[in-house]
Amino acid sequence: MIVLKQFCVAVLFALGIASGTATASAGEQAASALDRIRETGEITIGVRRDARPHSYVGDDGVPAGYTVAICDQVAQKLRGQLGLTQLLIRH
């Protein structure tokens, strides 16, 4: 569970950096990312196409792998914690 929490913090930190708030503290970045997810009802998760078994795109075009599964679970936890009834997960 500790590893999952550390992973979640890393994901939120990365979301904050991707939003262009590199001068803000890590806590502010995470809050900004969470606010954006709450407002839009969607989250974008990056997927490596060729890092089997961790992250890849299957023959059917659907993202798969351990990392994708963990990120999807984190996103669903966020959905609940943010009080959202739906959360669109983009890969």
Architecture overview:
- The protein has one domain (2-90): Periplasmic binding protein-like II (D-Maltodextrin-Binding Protein, domain 2, 3-Layer(aba) Sandwich), CATH 3.40.190.10.
- The chain is of the alpha+beta class.
- The longest helix has 17 residues, at 2-18.
- A 3-stranded antiparallel β-sheet has the order 2-3-4. The chain has a two-stranded parallel sheet with strand order 1-5.
- The model has no long low-confidence stretch (mean pLDDT 82).
- The radius of gyration is 13 Å and the shape is globular.
- The chain is built from 3 helices and 5 strands, in the order ααββββαβ.
Helix content: 40-55%
How does the major sheet shape up?
3 strands, antiparallel
Overall radius of gyration: 13 Å
The ordered H/E elements are HHEEEEHE
What's the CATH architecture? 3-Layer(aba) Sandwich
Low-confidence stretches: none
Assembly state (oligomeric): single chain
* Total helical elements: 3
Note the main attributes of this structure.
single chain; alpha+beta; D-Maltodextrin-Binding Protein, domain 2; two-stranded parallel sheet; 3-stranded antiparallel sheet; globular; 91 residues
